[in-house]
């Protein structure tokens, strides 16, 4: 038990020092080299520490969200008229920009989760096949990849 606690404390100290180094201008490579851990580990450490800080300071997060949302909305307004304009080349470029901005607004607003809500490839489905939900959906899909309407659990059409 003591070994687990000492590792946990060491990791917590590393995360704290890593975020301090990052704030002081150190690169992730520099930080990883300093701690003799992988770049991926340092990235996880900093992300975890920032998540903890965000959870503790709701007001600061709300202010940052409002600022980011205002910035994205200004960019959206900049591109909107071009996206719906009559110049096809400019409209294509602007539409791409508008969609990217809208996606970011959805992301920062929480409409797009940072992790998938369901892992279809690992969710097991009860039944005789023992396959995954993804496998089941594939069997219910028609040739174009769309789910066939009117299918019920035993695979028979409800339209019969």
Task: Characterise the protein shown here.
This protein is an all-alpha fold. The protein folds into 3 domains: 1-56; 58-115; 118-160, no CATH class. Helix content is 64%, strand content 0%. The protein is built from 6 helices and no strands. The chain has helices spanning 2-23, 28-35, 39-56, 58-83, 88-108, 133-140. The longest helix is centred in the middle third of the chain and has 26 residues, at 58-83. It is extended, with a radius of gyration of 24 Å. Residues 151-160 have low confidence and may be disordered.
In short:
The chain is mainly α and 160 residues long. The protein is built from six helices and no strands. Helices cover 64% and strands 0% of the residues.
Record the SSE blueprint.
Blueprint: H1 2-23, H2 28-35, H3 39-56, H4 58-83, H5 88-108, H6 133-140
Helix content: 55-70%
**What general outline do the C-alpha atoms trace?**
extended
Helix and strand composition category:
mainly alpha
Tally of strands: 0
Average predicted confidence as pLDDT: 79
| Percentage of residues in DSSP E strands | under 5%
* Total domain count: 3
Order of helices and strands: HHHHHH
Q: What is the terminal separation in angstroms?
A: 62 Å
Uncertain parts: 151-160
Task: List its traits.
160 residues, mainly alpha
């Amino acid at each position: 038990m003591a070994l687990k606690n000492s590792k946990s404390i060491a990791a917590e100290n590393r995360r704290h020092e890593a975020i301090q180094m990052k704030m002081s201008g150190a690169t992730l490579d520099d930080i990883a080299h300093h701690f003799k851990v992988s770049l991926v580990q340092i990235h996880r450490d900093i992300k975890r520490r920032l998540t903890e800080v965000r959870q503790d300071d709701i007001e600061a997060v709300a202010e940052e969200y409002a600022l980011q949302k205002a910035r994205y909305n200004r960019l959206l307004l900049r591109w909107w008229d071009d996206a719906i304009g009559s110049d096809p080349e400019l409209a294509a470029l602007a539409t791409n920009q508008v969609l990217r901005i809208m996606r970011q607004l959805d992301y920062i607003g929480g409409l797009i989760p940072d992790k998938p809500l369901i892992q279809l490839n690992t969710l097991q489905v009860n039944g005789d096949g023992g396959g995954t939900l993804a496998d089941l959906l594939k069997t219910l899909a028609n040739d174009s990849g769309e789910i066939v309407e009117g299918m019920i659990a035993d695979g028979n059409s409800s339209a019969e």
